[in-house]
Every structure is written in C-alpha cells, then in structure tokens.
Amino acid sequence: MRVVIESLGAEETAREVEALSALLEDAVEHGASVGFLPPMAADEARVYWRTVVAALREGTRVLLVARDAAGAVVGTAQLDLATRPNARHRAEVMKVMVHTKARRQGIGRTLMRVLEEHARRRGRTTLVLDTRRGDHAERLYTDVGWTLAGVIPTYARSADGRLDPSAFYYKLVEGGTP
Ligand SMILES: CC(C)(COP(=O)(O)OP(=O)(O)OC[C@H]1O[C@@H](n2cnc3c(N)ncnc32)[C@H](O)[C@@H]1OP(=O)(O)O)[C@@H](O)C(=O)NCCC(=O)NCCS
C-alpha cells in the first residue's frame, strides 16, 4: 500500500482525534500493548489524543500519521522529546500503530524511518522505546537497527490479567555519542 507520511501540528491533530481514536481502539481491541486494556471506555481514546494535542502545543512531541490514497489515517507513531536539561539529546518512540487492515505492507517500517529523520533534525540522537516481549513490533524494531538493552518482567498488564515482560530498545542515530 502506498502511503503518505505527514507530521501533524496540534490543530491538525485536534481535527483528526476521531480517526486517531479509531486507530487506537482497533489496536487495543486486537490485543496490542499500547497502554490501554480492552474494552476501552467510550471516551478513553479521545481523552488520550487530547493529551497528545497538548504535548504538541508545548512542543514536546512529534506526531506522524500515515495516510492511504483516499487520505484515511492508517498508521501513526510519536516521538516524545525529553525536556530535562541533561536529556535534550534524547527522545522516546511511542504508540507505533498500524491499522489491522493495513499491516505487513511496510507502513510501520516507513513510520520508523521518518520518525528517525525527525529525531535527527531536532538533535535527538539517543532514541529509546519499549514494547511487549515477543510482539511482532520487536521484529520491526530490530529490522530497522534498534538494539535490545534488556527485558523487565511483569512490566505491563495484558487483557487476560497477566503481567507481561517488556523489552527495552535503544538506537543511537547518526551524530549520537555512545
Ligand atoms: C508493530 C506494527 C506497528 C508493525 O506495523 P506494520 O506496518 O505491519 O509493519 P511492517 O509491514 O513495516 O513490517 C516490518 C517488519 O516487522 C516484522 N513484522 C511486522 N508484523 C509482523 C508479523 N505479523 N509477523 C511477523 N513479523 C512481522 C517483519 O520483520 C516485517 O518485515 P517484513 O514484512 O519485510 O518481513 C503493527 O503490527 C501494529 O500496529 N501492532 C500493534 C501496535 C503495537 O504493538 N505497536 C508497538 C508498541 S510500541
């Protein structure tokens, strides 16, 4: 599937809250470990995206969306820009999600590549992320050059009540100092 990747500002994101909420709900309903548990409450996704709008307004977040040929949002990813004085070279990749109907067509990989370009342009050269151990996302991250730092057991709760391990990854992008 050919997609266009866009970086959205706060106002554009506010206009896309419904589409982004549908994407988050689709991921959670299909078992993704992205901070929420099914069934999501009616307004839970919208409330979350409004916090992203606020972070975009503050300038501490980068939000990407992938649009299909018809302009529909089929994927998204974020970069949370660390704000502490000793961490302004750092950013966390979060909420990488592709709609279940659009998966396995390279959209996740494209989102990660473009997110990395945004990080580099902002001088964010140490990138971190975490994801549930064993999820397909791990394969995506290692494919695009991320390194496993370690695994923390009992990190996040799953829909069935279990506490699952999370894998913590990092990537030093060009210009980053080890
Ligand atoms: C993880 C996710 C974003 C991948 O998106 P995607 O667009 O399907 O990924 P891509 O098509 O770019 O796949 C890139 C690589 O990841 C791996 N991969 C992705 N999905 C896979 C699957 N279902 N089975 C095996 N490998 C898979 C493969 O190595 C793949 O490369 P290949 O197709 O050349 O073999 C998507 O599955 C998703 O939204 N999952 C739910 C949300 C989530 O868990 N996000 C991560 C939390 S931080």
How would you describe this protein?
With 178 residues, this protein is of the alpha+beta class. The chain has one domain: Gcn5-related N-acetyltransferase (GNAT) (Aminopeptidase, 3-Layer(aba) Sandwich), CATH 3.40.630.30. 32% of the residues lie in helices and 33% in strands. It has helices at 10-15, 17-29, 44-58, 107-121, 136-143; strands spanning 4-8, 61-67, 73-81, 90-98, 126-132, 147-157, 163-172. Strands 1-2-3-4-5-7-6 form a 7-stranded mixed sheet, with helices on both faces. A hairpin with a 5-residue loop joins strand 6 (147-157) and strand 7 (163-172). Helix 2 (17-29) crosses helix 3 (44-58). It is globular and about 40 Å long. The model has no long low-confidence stretch (mean pLDDT 97). Coenzyme A binds next to strand 4, helix 4 and helix 5.
Descriptors:
178 residues, alpha+beta, Aminopeptidase
Q: What is the tally of helical segments?
A: 5
Our estimate of the beta-strand percent is 25-35%
Bound ligands, each once: coenzyme A
Neighbour order of strands in the largest sheet: 1-2-3-4-5-7-6
Oligomeric form: single chain
Q: Looking at this structure, what is the CATH superfamily?
A: Gcn5-related N-acetyltransferase (GNAT)
For the record, give the distance between the C-alpha atoms at the N and C termini, rounded to a whole number.
Answer: 37 Å
Estimate nothing, just give the exact number of structural domains: 1
Q: Are there runs of 5+ residues with pLDDT below 50, and where?
A: none
